[in-house]
Amino acid sequence: MSALAAESLALRLGETQALAGVSAAFAPGRITAVLGPNGAGKSSLLACLAGMRVPDSGRVTLGGSPRTAFHPQDLARRIGFLPQDGEVHWDIDVATLVGLGRFPHRGRWGENAEDRAATAAAMVATDVAHLAGRVVNTLSGGERGRALLARVLAGTPQWLLADEPLASLDPAHQLDVLACLRAVAQGGAGVIVVVHDLNHAARLADDVLLMRDGRIVAHGPPAQVLTPALIGQTYGVAVHMGETPDGLPFIITTARR
Amino acid sequence: MSARLPLVLLALLVLAMLASLFAGKVWLPLAAFTPDDPRWLIIAELRLPRTLLAAIVGAGLGLSGAAMQGYLRNPLADPGLFGVSAGAALGAVLSLFLGMATVWLLPAFALAGAAIAMALLALLAGRSGSLLVFTLAGVIISSVAGSLTALAISLAPTPFATAQIVTWLMGALTDRSWADVAMAAPLILVGAALLALTGRSLDALTLGEPAARSMGVNPLRLQAAIVLGVGLCVGASVAAAGIIGFVGLMVPHIVRPFAGHRPSAVLLPSALAGALLLVAADSLVRLAPMASELRLGIAMSMLGGPFFLLLLLRMRRRLA
Question: Domain limits at B52?
Answer without folding.
Answer: 4-319
